[in-house]
Amino acid sequence: MKALLSALFFLCTANSFAEDLRYYDIEIVVIENQRENAKNAEHWPLEVSIEKPENTVVLGEAPLSEWLPLDADLAESFKVLSAEEYQLLEEVEKISQSRNQRVIFHTAWRQPGLDKKMAMPVYFKHDFTQIPLAQEETLAVDDEKTDTANSSVLEGIFRVTLARYLHLEAELSYRTKPVVTPIAEEIYEEYLTETTEENIEKQGVIYLKQTRNRIRSNELHYIDHPVLSILVKMTPYIKPETDETSSPR
């Protein structure tokens, strides 16, 4: 009898929790400040290792069902949103017109609002190449020199928790390495000096680790940093009543 009552209590609690489960669309824009004095404002670490907890969700991959609350909608949990669903395109367009700033990462996903005990970090790693501002005029004159570029890696973890307000924990590492192809090797050697070579060898990893508490939904929030700033918007998601695509356990 006690076992039956315990089971009934568990089911009622689980169903109540599932009904109260709220979903949010999380949109993140990472902005790089390209001014040289910004990157030289601090002594950055030479190496950074971002630790991923066991229940970390890789952006673009579905989480394990056992990590989620009972009856959570698997189809909507940590679903990557399409560009048509982005809400910060106007802000991104304004940034693209700046000579000193640029967007290096823009993404959005949908997730349930979970408390601190159950909240799961979202991990990503973004590899891309870029041409330094100092070389833009030279490279525009000689197309062959476009093989001289920087290989950059942006890696990070975002963790959203829900209490009375939404909270965000953000950790980012950003490393830029010179890449020399055979075509551009001679040009690259001419471009470099002993000073720049020494700076490249000692180049640190741009690092950000911040927590933003009391985030209000539907409002644009800005996380400041000498090099890597972040725009954040969290929007409540209401599932259409006609949508019956929820994934059963």
Which helices and strands appear, and what pairs or packs with what?
Elements lengths: L1 H19 L2 E11 L2 H4 L17 E2 L20 E2 L8 H8 L4 E12 L9 E9 L5 H6 L7 E14 L3 E14 L5 H7 L2 H8 L4 E10 L4 E4 L4 E10 L12
Parallel strand pairs: 2-5
Antiparallel strand pairs: 1-4, 1-10, 3-4, 5-6, 6-7, 7-8, 9-10
Tell me about this structure.
The protein has one domain (about 30-235). It has six helices and ten strands. The protein has helices spanning about 1-20, 35-40, 90-95, 135-140, 185-190, 195-200; strands spanning about 25-35, 55-60, 80, 100-110, 120-130, 150-160, 165-180, 205-215, 220-225, 230-235. Mean pLDDT is about 80; it is low at about 5-20, about 130-150, about 180-185 and about 190-200.
Put the structure in a nutshell.
This protein has 249 residues and is α+β, with helices and mostly antiparallel strands. The protein has helices spanning 2-20, 36-39, 89-96, 136-141, 185-191, 194-201, and strands spanning 23-33, 57-58, 79-80, 101-112, 122-130, 149-162, 166-179, 206-215, 220-223, 228-237. The strands form 2 sheets. Strands 3-4-1-10-9 form a 5-stranded antiparallel sheet.
Label this structure with key terms:
249 residues, alpha+beta, 5-stranded mixed β-sheet, 6 helices, 21% helix
Summarize model confidence as the mean pLDDT: 80
- State the order of secondary-structure elements, H for helix, E for strand: HEHEEHEEHEEHHEEE
Q: How much helix is in the residues?
A: 10-25%
Distance between the termini: 27 Å
